[in-house]
Amino acid sequence: MKPIRVAVIGVGNCASSLVQGVFHYRATGSADGLIHDYIGGYGAGDLEFVLGVDVDARKVGKDIADAIFAAPNNTTVFHSEVPATGAKVIKGCILDGVAPHMTTAGERGFQVAEGPEATKQQIVDALIEARAEILINFLPVGSQRAAEFYMDCALEAGVAVVNCMPVFIASDPVWAAKFQKRGLPIIGDDIKAQVGATIVHRALSNLFSVRGATVERTYQLNTGGNTDFMNMLDRQRLTSKKMSKTEAVQSSLAQRLADENILIGPSEYVPWQKDNKICFLRIEGTQWGGVPMNVELRLSVEDSPNAAACVVDAIRCCKVALERGESGVLIAPSAYYCKHPVEQFSDDTARQMLGVYIAGRAEAAE
Questions:
Q1: pLDDT surpassing 60 at residue 131
Q2: What percent of the chain stands above pLDDT 90?
Q3: Stretch 319-338: mean pLDDT
Q4: For the Myo-inositol-1-phosphate synthase GAPDH-like domain, which residue ranges apply (predicted)?
Q5: What secondary structure letter does DSSP report for 364?
Q6: 175 and 169 Cβ atoms separated by less than 8 Å
Q7: Which CATH superfamily is domain 197-303 in?
């Protein structure tokens, strides 16, 4: 079975965790930490990274195996022996992909590589030359124009997409129709973590609902020290991110909360946390007789490995779709792995739908 050929836009912490993990599982043969051991016959180690795209001078021109360990990446190194892939990181197109404050933050920020930015045709040619099958979008939050630029490139190059960031592509009917027409599958938008703030918040909110308690108000405040949190210091870049995370929680409630009673989103950048993300979550509600109750939770996770577990599954689902000749938005994988899918389902329902989809039974199309 040939490996799945993957191109990566944004060789940051998430890409580092994904690449490390692929070689970790290839070397160990372990299934620990995986959501699915195999999907369509493909294991977590059956990925081949064929192209990287970034704009940071410390990464451009390097082999992906070296670029994933370059600053400002600061995620946990759990598999340091990543062999050369033979795939270089090329300079991409910036557009709105780099917030101004990220270029004045020294080592912790972005250092834009000298030279001209890539044109659309150059990215398309690079994808075709690399024979990429699936493009992974790891651009920073708020990169609306940049994300759309790369989606156009994927469509022209004939490459499927996993949209891991909160620019709405798969959940936008116009973009979804473009992928359908081009005969390409897409999964999105905004990848969930394996066991992260959003999925825990959804689970607790659902627990209130199924046990007959009413959620009156809730918040989720997050801190972290990676470039994602630094990037989000520019609050103007947060519109789609807050919408994505808020809707993911709202959809798990028995009744939607008024805007003033729900706050979901990043809170602060704490440099020394590095890729560690800490979530402070509170749910206030009422139970029997209208008596008040509340739950408070503190969750600490390594942010990027937490996402990689879902990304590697989404990639394999995309590959299965390519082999089946499916196109457009993959409903079940998007619902299970993403915060802002085209249609929200409960986590239990999404998991059942995903199982049906992976098995390839006819019900997956209903």
A1: yes
A2: 95
A3: 98
A4: 196-304
A5: G
A6: yes
A7: Dihydrodipicolinate Reductase; domain 2 (3.30.360.10)
Query: Number of helices and strands (H, E) in the chain?
Result: 11, 13
Sheet strands (E) in the chain: 4-9, 38-39, 42-43, 47-54, 89-91, 134-137, 160-163, 185-187, 214-224, 262-269, 276-286, 292-302, 328-329
Q: Is the dihedral of CA 104, 106, 107, 113 positive or negative?
A: positive
DSSP-derived secondary structure for 29-62: ---TT-S-SEETTEETT-EEEEEEEE-BTTTTTS
- Report the alpha-carbon angle 44-17-245, nearest 5: 100
Judge whether 283 and 252 are in contact, CB under 8 Å: no
User: How does strand 185-187 pair with strand 214-224?
Assistant: unpaired
Tell me: pLDDT of 36 over 50. yes
Going from N- to C-terminal start, the domains of the chain cover 4-192+305-365, 197-303
**Rounded Cα distance, 142 and 121, in Å:** 24
Q: What is the pTM of this model?
A: 0.95
Is it true that domain 4-192+305-365 has CATH number 3.40.50.720? Answer: yes
Q: Tell whether the model's pLDDT for residue 265 goes beyond 90.
A: no
Query: CA-CA distance, 257 to 249, in Å (whole number)?
Result: 10
The Cα–Cα gap between 234 and 226 comes to 14
- Alpha-carbon gap, residue 184 to 37, rounded angstroms: 25
pLDDT band at 127 (very low <50, low <70, confident <90, very high): very high
Q: In CATH terms, are 4-192+305-365 and 197-303 the same topology?
A: no
pLDDT of residue 267: 75
Q: Return all residues near 87 (Cβ < 8 A) that are at least 6 apart.
A: 49, 50, 51, 52, 63, 64, 130
pLDDT for res 92: 98
Q: Which residue has the tokens 């085209």?
A: 342
Mean pLDDT of 88-102: 97
Contact between 127 and 7 under an 8 Å Cβ cutoff? The reply is: yes
The residue type found at 9 is I
